[in-house]
## 1
Amino acid sequence: MKKNRYLLCLLLCGFMLYFAVPRLSLFAEGLEGIFTISWLAFALIVIAGNLTAMLYSPAKAVKKRQQHRISKKSRSYY
């Protein structure tokens, strides 16, 4: 379920970049140039964060095995 959310965020970020990049002036001076660079930097951070979360999320099978092991270990009789 979370992978769907990450994919949706990536698609929305790509959609915003598709419309914004032609309108942004990278070599502008002053406040406009600072805004452009910071906006693109934040967009790249969003893309990197969502890709990292989507690619390195743990599998569900590993969680189930760990829960099964914990339940067996908790049955110790003294």
## 2
Amino acid sequence: MILPPPQRGNLTNAQWQRLQALLPAQKPSVGRPNNDHRTTINGILWILRTGAPWRDLPARYGAWETVSGRFYRWRRSGIWDRILQTLQQQADANGKLNWEVHHIDGSVIRAHQHSAGAKRGALDSESLLSEIEQVQQREALGRSKGGFSTKIHLRCDGNGLPITFLLTVGERHETVVFEQLMEQGAVKRTTGGRPRIRPHRIVGDKGYSSGAIRRYLRRRGIRLTIPRKDNEKHRGKFDKSIYRARNVVERCFNRLKQFRRIATRYEKKAENYLAMLTLASIHLWL
């Protein structure tokens, strides 16, 4: 018997073996049939890779309502976040997570017109922003030179694998969320003790050159390789050889954007787009 070739983009057997142990238990095969986890996740990955609407999901992955429902249910339960954290923890235990240097950068993502129109929910009546502006700030959607957009702020390790990320409106400057980006993404240790969060060195472009950022890093004993802006008076040592490796974070962005659901934002809710970004990061760690 000749078996059909595996579907392009589906999980390989090796990837599935690593992921299977981190998933919730499969529902017993009683009553109404339940979609197999592997088939369902392959369906979610098909949506992530192609950028297609849920309703266009091929029938081989099951009903689109079932596949999308599991994606959203696991997002609400925090399962995607826990899987990513566990994969990072395993890599750290095996010495495959590079703490010597972390790279940071931001990338503006064009938002599709379908991403507009999120429910307003509770708003601040005392805010100086309009109702629409408040919703856009909450859902990380705003206007920039590139149009209606979202900005991903990313920190990756020296191997180019994502450690942590957050979203802002498209025009938000990197320095505004730098400390928040540094304070999240802690990796628990299998041997116990305090989770590890601080790399030995941070590498960033001129957009991160500010006195506040340099003081923040020095207080925490983190070395930095950030070029100074032309209008800055103070100059110091700058290792160009280390800075040349900054393309690591750019390559990480490129790998994430191979998933079209990341390269263009279609989700109305920021939390759903973050879940898509988390799933893409999981795929890179597998």
## 3
Amino acid sequence: MNKENEQLPLFDFDEANLKKVEQHQPTPLNDSNYGKYIVYVDESGDHSLQSIDQSYPIFVLAFCVFHKRHYSEAIVPALEKFKFNFFGHDQIVLHENEIRRRKGVFNIFKNREHHQQFTNQLTEVIEYSNFILISTTIDKRELKPNADDNAYHIALGLCMESLHDFLSEKQQQEKTTHIVVECRGNKEDRDLELEFRRVCDGQNKFNKSLPFEIIFSDKKVMSSGLQLADLVARPIGLSVLRPDQQNRAFEVLKEKFYCMDGRNKLGENFEGVGMRIYPAPKSEKPR
């Protein structure tokens, strides 16, 4: 038996089972205030507006919005199997930066074909995973430096507004939705929580309270949702920074963005809706 046949199948959900996962709506507890979705967040780039790296002068914040049932029953097992196939165990945290640079545990590839196999299967996991993508890219070159401004905070407010729009379409806007972010440091976390509470308390385009709760997750926690969020942020940024450059990862992500026409128009009309740029390009149509 060759090595390929020894690998665990990534996806043991046939089409019928996948449809059941997507369509099944478990009966909620009558007294439950929790929504059906959970959000995992990661960023790409430096949030400071005081210094600009000319090679990457942007900041990207990505919200990955998962239906809890699909996440727990399909996505998590697929990602775990992927790790078992390539590392023999699941005690691996997938980081886009380390994978791209082949650092640490990601310096395992015997040859170019082995690396390509790894990349292809990881892309397959992302493509297979059914989640809604909401992002904001801050073009720091278009903003005047201000000591009080923070690209993360600007992007957070815009993403939270788009998230509320999406949850309203799903009639989940009154339920508590948890937003999971990675810890970055005591001061950064305190500042972020203050900004988060400010937006939730009504300083948003709706002028209303938003029923979101923030969860700070330690970097060592092997959250499948946070790992997927880490993998999508940079491809979004590169699509904005270098739109004419080939970007295979972004082509996969295009059909996941929250868009104007719902799931019937995957990959269309998501600019300015699920994928926002700030300041908005002059050609972008207001929603």
